[in-house]
Amino acid sequence: MSSPDVTRSWYESAFARFEQGLNGGSTSPLHLARRRSLAAFAARGFPTTADEEWRFTSVAPIAATRYVPSVSPGAAGVAASEVSRWALPGDGSVLLVFVNGHFAPEHSRIPALPRGVRIGSLAAALASDPSLPVMEFSGESGNGQDAFGALNTAFLTDGAFVAVADGVTFEAPVHILCLAAPGSEPLLVLPRHLVLAGKGARVNVLETYGGTTPGGFLTNAVTDIRVGPGAVVEHDTLQMEGRSSYHVGTTHVTLGAGAAFTSNAITLGGALVRNNVSAVFAGEDAECTLNGLSVATGTQHIDNHTVIIHAVPRCRSHELYKAVLDGSARGVFNGKIFVRQDAQKTDAKQTNRTLLLSDDATIDTKPQLEIFADDVKCTHGAAVGQLDDEQVFYLRSRGIGEAEARDLLTFAFATDVINRVHVSALRDRLDTLLHARLRQGRVNEES
Fold it and tell me: How much is the average pLDDT of 50-73?
């Protein structure tokens, strides 16, 4: 058999073993969605560089590895000290810890919740309320599924569940901490998160991804977010997995009338990373803001793909993605904005900026607009460059060393995105992490 056939056969066999352990659950609507998704994955297989959406990113190392899907909690665990290292400070926040994609209640912190707020494990939520929108898991919500999304749904077992009812404001940030604890076999971690914000609700959700060991693994995460009419949601992601790991993260967002959604995606770790964010305007007078920052060095490869669909009139979208690339790192940005024929009075702005700190770092950037309406304001652009020598000289003339001057300018470039994060504890952590990354890069360069 060819390599793609071997890969499909491997996951089909893994699914058969998974299905045998479901008992009566194998006839549920959710499992029917799993089966449809497995069939979709088997039909397409992993993408190749012949696919336009993956032209600059080869997932051949992922396709060539027989990852073992983590479909049960098993015996893997993490120490409380490890969780503390990753958790954000602050007693008032909610902490949901997932180890290898499965809820770890012993490490989680869920204070007394106000009426109208449900937070916890998705597996528990599905068990207690089968009426939850399974359509989100089957890819029938209009966002569709690619091969990775289909694979995630095929083995869907657990993740975070956050639901805020109409008119409820939940002040404390909800921190979803996903830790991978790989064993002797290559591990496939498949968290699935669902965030539901009702009419006029407000909530902040943060996802953090990390690993407890330097061992290799693949995280294939999917987050579905429904922002109800007039609701306000901020969704932040921080990816800090090890340099020998792979990460594919997908976020689907649907916005109701008058809703406001903000995404801040920060990527620091991983050998190969693909971040997919798609947003669909389903109601008028809504606003969507997508911000992203990637910092990569060595041979890291970070690919950011965004899609914003303006399907209705009078909506606004703002997009700013930045990358700092050093060593032989490679970045990819492909941002698409679709303005459909009925989406008059659309206001859309898209910007991609990349700072190259070495001659071997590269970026492939492709901002796109497809406009079928005639009464719109839409702009897009990309800029790629290096540090300004005159600015470096100015700082050096003020007694600052060359390396420190370069760090200051790089930090200023990156903090334009970090300062857009509203959760102060996360913003402080990002400042610290960025300073540490810049110092590390300088030490590696000087050694």
Answer: 94
